């Protein structure tokens, strides 16, 4: 969390409820808990990006 306040909602398997964004009656959609990570996750592709600008956990050390 940067420049903000925690919501006080724990990210855990047992924490589930429908959320305000976007409103949904889908029982599989949740805005909290570990399932929310999957709901709001967006894939990113880093192709031919120099190691100097990559996030630290995905730097290819064999290509330095």
How is this structure best described in words?
This protein has one helix spanning 34-40. The chain has one helix and no strands. It starts with 33 loop residues before the first helix and ends in a 24-residue tail after the last helix. The protein is largely without helices or strands and 64 residues long. 11% of the residues lie in helices and 0% in strands. The mean pLDDT is 70. It has a domain at 1-42. It is elongated, with a radius of gyration of 17 Å.
Topology:
Layout: H1 34-40
* Percentage of residues in DSSP E strands: under 5%
Helix content: 10-25%
Shape: elongated
The number of distinct β-strands equals: 0
Radius of gyration: 17 Å
Q: Number of helical segments?
A: 1
Largest sheet: none
Judged by helices, strands and strand pairing, the structural class is little secondary structure
Multimer state: single chain
Q: If you average the pLDDT, what whole number results?
A: 70
Give the low-pLDDT segments. none
Helix-strand pattern: H
Give the terminus-to-terminus CA distance. Answer: 31 Å
What can be said about this structure in brief?
The protein is mostly loops and 64 residues long. 11% of the residues lie in helices and 0% in strands.
Notable features of this structure?
64 residues, little secondary structure, elongated
